[in-house]
Amino acid sequence: MDKPVPAAASSTQASEPSARTVVLAGATGLVGRAILQGLLADASVAAVHALGRRPLTLQHLKLISHVVDFAALPPLPPVDEVYLALGTTIKIAGSQAAFRAVDFDASLAVARAAQAAGATRLGVVSAMGANARSSIFYNRVKGEMEDALSAMGFDALVIARPSLLTGDREALGQPMRSGEKFMMRAGAWLRPFIPANFKPIAADDVAAALLTRVPLAQGREVLLSGAMQSSA
Q: What's the pLDDT at 10?
């Protein structure tokens, strides 16, 4: 698949009927934050409904922050697109069941609610190695999530499968995940020898790829790290 390129800024005014209304879940994470920034800067986006367990501190004319219980979502306003950037780790969640509640149950709940509200396009942050038949619990849950979303019949489903994500976790109040420090140090030396799909990738690059492809895609697309890496 060709490497996504940033979409040109649209001349469509937010007040015109063609302006897009978007739902975003996971705006406080590395990729979710970058997706939110891109949506707010996009002239073709009229409104962004951000769903989270806590209100966002960011304020913007286009941004509507909703504090929700993902296990009991209320009906959503009419929307065109949905972006899912929810994710945790078993260590942070505390158990496999708690991990699944976020990465599978909450993601599917938002997708269903958005589809009921009119969304026909969906972009989701999954993971390298996602496979519903994997013996690795993390990869299996990600794969099951992908399969469940694929069965929902969205006109466009864009799945990003990044390798190790890089970005400023400290700015988000998040600890660097296990192994990340080692991989970042080793990556600087080993990068020329690492296959493109396995190289660490900036969260901003993953967000840019989703923001480019979701409005344009037809059917199901899977974006691997090699296709999402920035040339910068």
A: 39
Cβ partners under 8 Å of residue 171, min gap 6: none
> Which of the two residues, 165 and 107, has the higher pLDDT score?
107
Going along 87-184, which residue ranges are E strands? 121-125, 156-161, 165-166
Per the CB < 8 A criterion, the answer to whether 136 and 129 are in contact is yes
Residue type, 151: A
Please state, in angstroms and as integers, the Cα–Cα distance from residue 161 to each residue in 48, 89, 118, 149, following that order.
24, 16, 26, 14
Per DSSP, the three-state class of 170 is helix
pLDDT, tens digit, 9 for 90 and up, residues 14-41: 334 469 999 999 999 999 999 999 999 9
The structural domains of the chain, with segments of one domain joined by +, span 20-228
The Cα 208–Cα 229 span in angstroms is 10
**Nearest alpha carbon to residue 142 among 205, 99, 92:** 99
Residue 181's φ and ψ, nearest 5 degrees, are -60, -45
The token pair that represents 186 in the structure block: 């080793």
Tokens at residue 73, please? 């979502």
Instruction: Answer yes or no: pTM beyond 0.85.
Output: no
CA distance 149 to 226: 23
Question: What would the two tokens of residue 67 be?
Answer: 């504090």
- pLDDT tens-digit readout, 108-123: 999 999 999 999 999 9
Q: Which of 2, 6, 1 is nearest to 205 (CA)?
A: 6
**pLDDT for position 164:** 87
CATH superfamily, domain at 20-228: NAD(P)-binding Rossmann-like Domain (3.40.50.720)
